[in-house]
Structure formats: C-alpha cells, structure tokens
Amino acid sequence: MSIQDVIKNSVLEAFAYGGNLSVDAVLEILLSLVISFVVGLIIYRVYRIFFGGVVFSRSFCATLVGMCVLTCMVTLAISTNIVISLGMVGALSIVRFRTAIKDPMDLLYLFWAITAGITVGAGMYLLAFAGSAMMILVIALLYARQKRAGIYILVVHYEGDLAGDQVFRELGRMKYQLKSKTLRGEVAEMTIELTCRKDNTVFTERIRNLEGVKDVTLIEYNGEYHG
C-alpha cells in the first residue's frame, strides 16, 4: 500500500469516524478521560501540599487538571488517523503562550500534567500511575530536605563596627555569606544569606540583644524575594 492510499483511507476514516464509534471505543474514550481527570487531581493535590511559593494560585491548579485532560483528548484524536494528527499539528503551531513562569517547579508540574495526559491518551494507564507515584516520591524527598534546612536573608541594622563583628560571632558555624553592607551615617545595614533549620532561629534573639543593634529581620528566601 502506497502513502497515497494511506492518506486516502485516513481521509475516509476521518469523515466516517464520528458516526461509526463502537461501544467499546466510546467506553475506552470515557475511561481515558476519567483517568486523566483523576491523575490531574492527584497532581493538583501534590502541588497544593508541597507549594512553597508566596501566593497560592488556584487558577494554576485548575490549569494543571485541565492540561492533563486536554492533552489526553488531543492524544486520543491524533491516534485515530493521519489527517486529524496533521490538523492538530497545524492548529497547535499557531498557538503562542506568553504567561511567565517564575518558579521552575511550576514547569515541572506543567510537564508532569502534559506527559500524564499523553500517556493516558495512549492507553498506558499503568505507566501514568507509576510515573505519577515516582514523581510524588521525588518531590516528597526534595521537600523533606528543604523542610529540614532553608535559605534565609538576614538584614541587620546596627551602629559601630564592634556590633557588626559580634553579629558574625553569633552566627557561629552556620553557613552564611555576606551579600551587602550599606553605611548611612552612623547606622549600617548588613544583608547576609544563611542556611539554617527552620526550627532553629533563636540566634535572631541573641543578635537583637547585642549592644548597638537596632533591628533584625529574617526573611525566608525561595527565589521570589527582591530587595
């Protein structure tokens, strides 16, 4: 059979596809859409549990579920024949997405939703659930590590060089790095990036009680802080 015959048969199938759906085909389509919706809800739930940003976006969560279902639908349509697949490629090629993704983890969830929808649409249900389980395990392990120790920005206003030296002594063996130091008359502002456990921030009280220290600010850094 030549390529012309394949395309011709695909065109004929495209016109006859809507009216010749068997009961098994309808059930398979419905099953794929339901499973993609369930997987999308799982991704939504994982994103909500492990969200570490500043503002939680419900619209982004709805996008994850919808993306999973839509990619499943596209995969089901493409798998029918060549004509529909070429039409889908042409239609999707003119779409431009300009929404900025600030957190790289959001890209991970989006790609997870897309690949899960494609996998379910291809009928690989076990692979979709197994891959989702592996992703949950990876995110949980990374989140547990992040929960034990976090990156913080310490901002201290003080007077006198002695107070600045005492601040570094109070940090002790903590992992830190001086980011900036600004002098405004007799008052100095020092910004330090440090790593510490989230349940061990008592050092801020000791720094605040130092002679010459005006105020202390501790900010958790998650990639979205702009000074």
Main beta sheet? 4 strands, antiparallel
Q: Decide which structural class fits the backbone.
A: alpha+beta
**What is the domain tally?**
2
Instruction: Tell me roughly what share of residues is in helical segments.
Output: 55-70%
End-to-end Cα distance, whole Å, is 66 Å
H and E order: HHHHHHEHEEHE
Compute the number of helices: 8
Strand order of the largest sheet: 2-3-1-4
Low-confidence stretches: none
Number of strands: 4
**Residue fraction in strands:** 15-25%
Overall spatial form:
elongated
- The whole-number mean of residue pLDDT values reads 77
Q: What attributes does this structure have?
A:
single chain, 227 residues, alpha+beta, 4-stranded antiparallel sheet
Topology diagram in text:
Elements: H1 3-16, H2 23-49, H3 58-78, H4 82-92, H5 104-121, H6 125-148, E1 149-159, H7 161-171, E2 175-184, E3 187-197, H8 203-208, E4 213-220
Antiparallel strand pairs: 1-3, 1-4, 2-3
Helix pairs in contact: 2-3, 2-5, 2-6, 3-5, 5-6
What does this structure look like?
The chain is α+β, with helices and mostly antiparallel strands and 227 residues long. The chain has 2 domains: 3-123, no CATH class; 149-220, 2-Layer Sandwich (Alpha-Beta Plaits), CATH 3.30.70.260. The protein has 8 helices and 4 strands. It has helices at residues 3-16, 23-49, 58-78, 82-92, 104-121, 125-148, 161-171, 203-208, and strands at 149-159, 175-184, 187-197, 213-220. The protein has a 4-stranded antiparallel sheet with strand order 2-3-1-4. Helix 2 (23-49) runs antiparallel to helix 5. The chain is elongated. It starts with a helix and ends in a 7-residue tail after the last strand.
